[in-house]
Every structure is written in structure tokens, then in C-alpha cells.
């Protein structure tokens, strides 16, 4: 009986250590993933920052904004490297997000530098920046993070999402009794060529 009690106590202690280690690792990674996403959000602010720069101090503003942008770029590269070691699947989604953000927001930053600085409060509202092309990459990153931090394996979660999308598509096609589209003339020409 004493040996059995000692074995049970040892097993419970090992399980407790494993669970606490997993929680600590998940908390640390959660903070890392959030900081990496925050760096993306910071980079996405620069199209607005550049457009709202002060007109009376062009050289100082150029230096200030360029320095801040360089700091954010450095953080993005650091996060990419750390994520590669920490969570490779998440790192792939983050790398795609960084590249898309640099393409979309970076182009908007370049365009902003070519505009004249604002001179009145009424010009503070920026309406020519569209970063919506980054959203799918943000969603993919957040999904990869959620999969990584979840207790269930990511493949199981991905399969569940695929089944939900498939079922949703199936149900929506059953609800929509619209007739099938007519064949295009090019399709008719191809089918006649095949028949001949």
C-alpha cells in the first residue's frame, strides 16, 4: 500500500509538472504571438503617419518617421526569426502576413511620401488608404496561432473548418433553387469540336 501511494503521488507530481509547463509555455507564446501581431498593426499605421506629417519641419519629420519605421521593420524581422524557431507553422503564416503587409502598406507609405504634407486640421482624415488586402493574411495568422495554442491537434481543427465550409456550401446550394447558368458560346464550340 505504501509503495502504491508513492507511485500515485509521483505520477500526480509528474502530471502537474507537465500541465504547469504547458501552461507557462502557452502563456509565453501567447505574448510572443500578440507582440508580433502588434508589430504588424504598427507598420499598418505608417501610411497614415506619413500623410499626417508636419509641413513646417520636413527634414525632422522625415528623420523621425524613417527612424520609427526602421524600428518597426527590425521588430518584424526579429519576430519572423523567433517564430521560425518557436512555432514553424505560425511562422509561415506570419511571414506571408509580413510580406503582404509590406506590399500593401508599403506601397501606401511610398505614395504618402509623394503627397504634400497636411497644413490644416481638416486634412487629417485619410481616405485614400486601403489595407483590406492584408485582412485575409491576418485571419490566416490568427487561425494558425489559435491552432497552435489549442489543446486539440491543428490537423483536427483544420479538418473541422473544412467540414464546416463544405457543409455550409452544400446547405447554401440546396437553399438556392436558381437554375444552372446557360453554357457559354465558347463551351458550345468546344463540345461541337469534340463531337466531330
Task: Tell me what the structure shows.
With 196 residues, the protein is mainly α. Helices cover 79% and strands 0% of the residues. The protein contains 6 helices and no strands. Helix 1 packs antiparallel against helix 2, helix 2 packs antiparallel against helix 3 and helix 3 packs antiparallel against helix 4. The radius of gyration is 26 Å and the shape is elongated. It starts with a helix and ends with a helix. The C terminus is likely disordered.
Task: Give keywords.
mainly alpha; 79% helix; disordered C terminus
Percentage of residues assigned to helices: over 70%
- How far apart the termini lie comes to 88 Å
Shape annotation: elongated
Question: Biggest sheet, open or closed, and with what strands and sense?
Answer: none
Which regions contain 5 or more consecutive residues with pLDDT less than 50?
A: 180-196
Count of extended strands = 0
Write down the secondary-structure element order: HHHHHH
Portion in beta strands:
under 5%
By DSSP (H or I, 4+ residues per run), the number of helices equals: 6
Secondary-structure-derived class: mainly alpha
What's the average pLDDT?
85
Rounded to the nearest angstrom, the radius of gyration is 26 Å
List the helices and strands and how they pair.
Elements: H1 2-51, H2 58-86, H3 88-114, H4 135-149, H5 154-175, H6 185-195
In short:
This protein is mostly helical. 79% of the residues lie in helices and 0% in strands.
Amino acid at each position: 500500500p505504501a509503495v502504491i501511494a508513492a507511485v500515485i503521488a509521483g505520477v500526480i507530481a509528474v502530471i502537474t509538472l507537465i500541465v504547469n509547463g504547458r501552461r507557462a509555455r502557452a502563456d509565453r507564446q501567447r505574448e510572443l504571438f500578440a507582440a508580433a501581431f502588434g508589430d504588424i498593426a504598427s507598420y499598418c499605421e505608417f501610411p497614415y503617419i506619413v500623410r499626417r506629417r508636419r509641413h513646417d519641419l520636413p527634414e525632422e519629420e522625415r528623420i523621425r518617421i524613417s527612424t520609427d519605421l526602421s524600428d518597426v521593420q527590425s521588430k518584424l524581422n526579429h519576430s519572423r526569426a523567433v517564430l521560425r524557431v518557436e512555432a514553424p507553422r505560425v511562422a509561415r503564416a506570419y511571414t506571408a502576413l509580413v510580406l503582404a503587409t509590406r506590399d500593401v502598406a508599403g506601397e501606401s507609405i511610398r505614395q504618402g511620401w509623394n503627397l504634400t504634407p497636411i497644413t490644416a486640421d481638416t486634412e487629417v482624415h485619410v481616405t485614400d488608404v486601403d489595407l483590406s488586402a492584408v485582412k485575409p493574411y491576418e485571419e490566416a495568422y490568427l487561425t494558425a496561432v489559435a491552432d497552435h495554442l489549442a489543446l486539440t491537434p491543428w490537423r483536427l481543427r483544420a479538418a473541422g473548418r473544412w467540414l464546416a465550409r463544405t457543409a455550409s456550401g452544400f446547405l447554401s446550394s440546396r437553399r438556392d433553387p436558381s437554375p444552372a447558368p446557360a453554357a457559354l458560346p465558347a463551351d458550345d464550340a468546344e463540345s461541337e469540336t469534340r463531337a466531330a
